[in-house]
Amino acid sequence: MVEVKLEWSVSKNMEITVGQLAARSGVAVSALHFYEAKGLIRSRRTAGNQRRFSRDTLRRIAFIRVSQRVGIPLRTIQDALSALPDERTPTREDWARLSATWQSELDDRIRQLQRLRDGLTDCIGCGCLSLDRCALANPDDAAAARGPGSRLMLARRESRECSPCQDTATGGGSEAVCA
Quick one: which of 98, 11, 8 has its CA closest to 55? Predict the structure, then answer.
């Protein structure tokens, strides 16, 4: 009896298939095809037109996923990866150089997110119910300094004559609206 031993591990110098790459990276095959179409990763084709990826593609995919997780756009990731060598695993220095170029961009994004977070507490209770009038969404709105929208509506209602809303279909009116 002959024993056949299947080995799933990939030797150091072998290329891997798209299925193996998907299994080892945790990324769907369709996403890998998308990354390849966008120029983020590269493969070669066999005589049977099957994709083969070098092992360093695993590190590139890890880099892509981490970059996406922190909000780096794919176009920026593509530009960064184009600066890396194609046929060898990027070194620690290669990765350090890339991350340094994004540091200020990420710091700016963090500051913007902190301002948004800090403003949300005020926005949740303001009652403006309008992105056009909200001080958070519309920071140059002069009326925002006078308070939330509902207070402004009441003040305007008192200073003008209001008439009931006329529904043309029924002729009825249920709300007062300032003209």
Answer: 11
pLDDT at 32 over 90: yes
% residues pLDDT > 70 (the chain): 58
What letter does residue 143 receive in the DSSP assignment?
G
pLDDT at res. 160? 54
Q: Which pLDDT score is estimated for 90?
A: 72
pTM of the model: 0.56
Half-sphere exposure of 118 (CA within 13 A, CB side): 6
Q: Where are the domains of the chain?
A: 12-124, 127-160
* Domain 12-124 part of CATH 1.10.1660.10: yes
User: What letter does residue 84 receive in the DSSP assignment?
Assistant: S
